[in-house]
Amino acid sequence: MTDEIPHNTEEKVDINVNTNINEEQNEEKINTEKEPPLKKNRLGPCQVCSTNESKYTCPGCSIHFCNLSCSKKHKEDTKCTGKRDVTKFVELSKFDLNTLRSDAKLKSDRSERSRKADNIDDHTFQFHPAHVKFVQRRIHERSIHMQLMPQGMTRRERNTTQYKNKEDKVFWRIELIFDQQLDENNNKVEVYEKHVDENVSLNTFLLQYIDASSVSVTGDSVGTSTLITHATTRDKLKNYTDRLAENNTSTCPFSFFMLVERKPPSSKPNEVLYYELDGSKSLRNSLVDKIVVEFPIIHVVLPSEKQSYQVITQEQIQETLQELKDRINERKEKKKQFQERKEQHEQKIAERQEKYQQSKNDNQRGSDTHRGRGRGNFVQRGRGRGGGQYNNSRGGHK
User: Fold this and answer.
1) Cystine design at 160: which of 80, 113, 194, 274 (Cβ 3.0–4.6 Å)?
2) Domain span at residue 338?
3) Per the UniProt entry, what is one GO biological process (predicted)?
4) How far apart are CA 252 and CA 241, in angstroms?
C-alpha cells in the first residue's frame, strides 16, 4: 500500500522556504547598511600621559585623564585633592539647576554639622591620662599649640613625646617624609625617632640620616642597631645624599615643611597649606605659634621642588590662632553652662526626693494613727464598767 502525500504539505514546505529566503535577504540588507560613525571623544586626549583618550574629569581641577594611575600622578604633581570646590564662584549665565542643588546641599550640610557640634559637650569626650595632659601643658608654655587626638586613635598611640622634669626639656617624636625619594614599593621614604631633644636643630637631626660623619641626636642611648638603621636609611636616600654631596656651602640645602592640619577660616576648601620651618633653628623655636597635632610630621624637600609647596602667611597663622582661641573660650563657656545645668538638674532631683520622702513620712504617720479600723489591728485601752482595763480587739476585761 503506497503512502500518499497530501497537497497541503507541499504548500507548507513552499511557505517555509520563502520565509527563510526573506529572512536571509533582510539579514543581508542589514549587513550591507553602513555602520554609524563613531562619536568623537569630547574630552580629547589624556592631559597626563597624552597617549590614551580621556575618560574622566577631575572634580577638583577639571583636568582630563584616562585611568587611575594618571589620576594619582596628577594629584602628586599638582597637589590636587580631587574634591570639587563647592564654594567656587559661578557666573550667573552658567548658574543652572545643578548649581542650585549643590548650594542647597552645602547649606544643609553646614547646618547639620553646626547642630551636631552644638549638641556635643566636653564630658562626652574620653579624658586623657594625667601624664599626657602634663606634657601638653609643658608644651603650651613654650607657645606651641599641641592638640591631642581621642584615645585609641593610631596617631595618639604612636605619640612617644615626653617631658623630663629634671632637665626641663621636651623630647619629641619626629617623623620625616622624603617627598622626592621612593622606596621599592613606590612609597615615599619615611623615618622616625621616638625622643628628639627640643634644642636640636632640624638640619642636625636630618644629617644623621644622609651624612655618615654625623652622630645621633636622639635622647636615647646610641647603640649598634641605631647606627645600622641610619646606614640602611642612608642607602635609600640616594637623591638626597647626592644633592648633599653637590652642595658647596656649609649650610643644609634642604627645606622643611609641615602640613597645616587646622587651616584658617579664609582658606579655600581644596587649598593645601604648609608651615615652612627654619632648619637652622631648634625644634623649640621652629614650632613656636604652630599647631601640632600630637607630634610633628615634617616633609624634607629638595631645593628644586620647594616652589610647589604653598606656605601659609603670617596673617593666616594669626587668624588660625585667634580662631583656636575663640573655640577654646567657647568650649569653656559650654562647659560652664553644662555644669550649671547639671547642678540645677541635681537640685531638682534632690527637691523631688525630699518631697517624696516627706510625703512618704506623712502617709506613714497617718497609717499608724488609723491602724486598727480593720478588725484586730488596733488595741484600745480604757476602763470597763467594773473599773478594769479591757482590750477592744479581744473584747474582754483584764
Assistant:
1) 194
2) 323-351
3) box C/D snoRNP assembly
4) 11
